[in-house]
Amino acid sequence: MASADEEVVMTPSKQGKVTHIKIERKKKQQVNQDDVVFQGGGQHKGLVVNRKNAQDEDLGKPQLQLGFMCFLVDQKTEEHYVESRKLKFWYVDGCDYYNQVTTAYEFFKELVRPESFPRDYVGFIKKCMKQMQSDRYSLARKVDLEVEHMDAADAPMSPGQCPCVCAVLPTDSVSVMSVNEFGVFMMVLIY
Q: The organism sits in which domain of life (predicted)?
């Protein structure tokens, strides 16, 4: 768990078609209580939800980014659509590149594990927040979940048409992963 003097703060925002869910570890005294709309208790103690577009510290360009596509079905209309989701990571000072990559990969792997893959937005965001609260990811200072609903013309037709994913590393090495059983197409970009 995060230390007793830390909270995991989620701040939503929207820029055009893109929704940003910023999740950051903050010292309790750094949390602006005027921005807080929900403070977790019980098993969710230490989780804080800010109002939309609350002030957020600009940490500059993310140190690492992972991206993947979700092939979804609207339960009411049965319409199929695709979302592009990106996880952008910032780390504590002094975190070396190896630990940055390892932390991001482990965070991502746990998040999309088939047996516990979140079925809705709230579950997905909550799982991201709970993972940030874990000591396992203490090197991650901030994660920005970027969600974009893809236009039909820009989106891949189905996960079956994208049978594999390449992870492109700065060393130009390539590894391949398959689409998981929930149709989540994963493309990993690390910069």
A: Eukaryota
- Cβ proximity of 132 and 144 under 8 Å: no
pLDDT digits (tens, 9 = 90+) for 82-98: 888 899 999 999 999 99
Q: Alpha-carbon Rg of the chain, whole angstroms? A: 17
Calculate the average pLDDT of the chain.
77
pTM: 0.76
Which position has the token pair 């230490």?
46
DSSP-based three-state secondary structure for 152: coil
Please give the full DSSP string across 60-110, using - where no structure is assigned: -S-SEEEEEEEEEE-TTT--EEEEEEEEEEEE-TT--HHHHHHHHHHHHHH
How far, in Å, CA of 97 to CA of 92, rounded? 12
Of 23-37, 50-64, 164-178, which range is least confident?
164-178
Any residues with CB less than 8 A from the CB of 167 and at least 6 apart, and which?
174, 175, 176, 177, 187, 188, 189, 190
Check the CA dihedral 134-137-142-147 and report its sign. negative
DSSP codes, 124-137:
HHHHHHHHHHSGGG
Structure tokens at 35: 């921005």
Distance of CA 66 to the CA centre of its chain: 8
